[in-house]
Amino acid sequence: MIILSTIAELRKAVVNAKSSKQSIGLVPTMGYLHEGHLTLAKNAREENDVVVMSIFVNPTQFGPNEDFESYPRDLERDTKLAASVGVDYIFAPSVEEMYPHDGGIYIRAGRQAQTLCGASRPSHFDGVLQVVAKLFNLVQPDRAYFGQKDAQQVAIIQTMVRDYNFPVELRVVPVVREGDGLAKSSRNVYLSSIERMQAPVIQQALQIAKLELMDSGDVDQALAQATKIIEDNTAGKIDYLSILTYPDLKEVDENSDQILLAAAVYIGKTRLIDNLILSLKGERIHA
Ligand SMILES: Nc1ncnc2c1ncn2[C@@H]1O[C@H](COP(=O)(O)OP(=O)(O)OP(=O)(O)O)[C@@H](O)[C@H]1O
Ligand SMILES: CC(C)(CO)[C@@H](O)C(=O)[O-]
Ligand code: BAL
């Protein structure tokens, strides 16, 4: 496996692969790898000749009071893990390498970014689209791999690919979880042992909401039950708990088909997200 830190080196590797007609799979990450990221990479390994994983804690998707500085980083450990699942290239640029110019052109995420994480992290998705668009242009992947854990991110990137005609196939990988149901996340390392015991409640609450929704079709009732589970079992503060259509992220109504149940909860100081996607064709739903 080769570690690349400059755009020039990356472009050389990409041009080489393209000239020998090799397909390229891209796995964008912010590093501090866990089984979730490695599952994306394993999928990419199975479906492409060349696998490029980017490891870049992208400053433009963090708000001023968020955890950009403290976000966990360990390139040496990541390198070993990525090699173990057959990644060919890690692209780990500096911030200066990715963003040498100030005041240039920015991409604005649309309506789908006004809710859920986009409501509490203004401009987060603009930053995500900025770095993902750059990575698509630099790597020119045949396929790019994203996790369903970041369901809103997937929906917004799908819209960018559609609206800006990026010639890439998006591959979405189901959420990889710990044994107790907690979604794997690099931010889980921030949790104290008591917080770690409480954190699976987020997924349990979403499961309860799903059962209620399938049973009664009542969105408000489903949300109320999930809220109660989280409030009774954690010291956590709910950032949002929502039921929306997916991938449009609009209010559900009786014609809704795919539905996203999504939560962001502060367990102590750590903001964790999780979701479930339901297919409700033919079920009766009322909001
Ligand atoms: N548990 C998981 N299951 C499936 N995919 C995941 C999981 N965790 C992260 N991913 C995916 O890996 C990619 C890189 O994510 P990222 O580096 O932000 O990891 P993370 O663990 O989600 O970190 P964070 O702490 O920021 O939530 C994204 O496409 C994300 O959806
Ligand atoms: C897609 C991504 C790598 C862009 O920085 C990031 O938002 C993430 O890790 O999900
Ligand atoms: N996977 C989400 C990246 C972020 O929280 O910035």
Automatic annotation (TrEMBL):
What is the role of this chain?
Catalyzes the condensation of pantoate with beta-alanine in an ATP-dependent reaction via a pantoyl-adenylate intermediate.
Keywords for the protein's UniProt record, in alphabetical order: ATP-binding, Cytoplasm, Ligase, Nucleotide-binding, Pantothenate biosynthesis
Protein name (Swiss-Prot/TrEMBL): Pantothenate synthetase
Positions of the catalytic residues: H37
Oligomeric form and interacting partners = Homodimer.
Residues annotated as binding (R)-pantoate: Q61, Q153
Q: What organism is recorded for this protein?
A: Solibacillus faecavium
Main location per UniProt? cytoplasm
Gene encoding it?
A: panC
Question: What taxonomic classification does the UniProt entry list for its organism?
Answer: Bacteria, Bacillati, Bacillota, Bacilli, Bacillales
Q: In which pathway does it act?
A: Cofactor biosynthesis; (R)-pantothenate biosynthesis; (R)-pantothenate from (R)-pantoate and beta-alanine: step 1/1
Q: Which Pfam families match?
A: Pantoate_ligase
